[in-house]
Write a structure and sequence with these properties.
By secondary structure, the chain is α+β, with helices and mostly antiparallel strands. It contains 4 helices and 12 strands.
Length: 207
């Protein structure tokens, strides 16, 4: 299966886009949720008519172990309650692949299960790592799923200077769920899902 003849330009563009998001000033973000484990902000997306979300929290653990739990691989399905299946469709190198995954219904199944096909890339960033992705329009949609689309998304994980056993995890998510959904329902789901992501990840890292 030859999805992408050359993954390098897409990986570089994706990394640069995420670094650009990471440099957006605090005054451009509006807080949408403050939870015990993370704070979530949002601003209008420049990619589509929805929002770019930013989530941030401190997670106990070294950078490599945290990112191994987030990026495509054996850990993610074990702890992420939103993700129901994940298949790696093509691997370009150990840090670059194409995955197809499905998500569970949300808001008492008001938001039906979704399917995504994403290009995923993990690379170094400062003293830590960046793992990022973007959806591809590829292949047939599985029955009983709506095909969603992730505009450039990613997670920066950098060790805290004074507490190297802890890391600052900052995520940027802009998911177009598609289908006939009121934007308010999508916004409610996104903020809650991102906050839960941190609490579920922390539990997984303690096991």
């Amino acid at each position: 299966m030859d999805l992408l003849l050359n993954s390098a330009p897409l990986a570089t563009k994706l990394r640069n886009t995420l670094i650009q998001y990471h440099s957006i000033g605090d005054n451009e973000w509006r807080v949408t949720k403050k939870a015990k484990d993370a704070t979530v902000w949002r601003k209008p997306s420049e990619e589509f008519s929805g929002y770019l979300y930013k989530a941030q929290g401190v997670v106990e653990g070294v950078t490599n172990r945290i990112v191994d739990h987030i990026r495509p691989g054996p850990y993610r399905l074990d702890w992420d309650s939103l993700m129901t299946t994940m298949d790696i469709m093509e691997t370009f190198d150990e840090n670059c692949c194409v995955i197809r995954y499905t998500t569970a219904g949300q808001l008492w199944n008001f938001i039906a299960p979704r399917e995504f096909v994403d290009f995923s890339y993990t690379t170094s960033y400062e003293d830590g790592l960046l793992t990022c992705g973007i959806s591809l329009d590829y292949g047939e949609v599985r029955p009983n799923f709506v095909r969603g689309f992730n505009h450039p998304c990613g997670w920066f994980c950098v060790p805290l200077k004074d507490y190297p056993s802890h890391s600052l995890l900052t995520g940027y998510i802009q998911t177009e769920l598609r289908g006939m959904l009121p934007q308010s329902a999508v916004d409610t789901a996104m903020s809650s899902t991102l906050a839960s992501f941190y609490s579920d990840l922390k539990k997984a890292l303690k096991t």
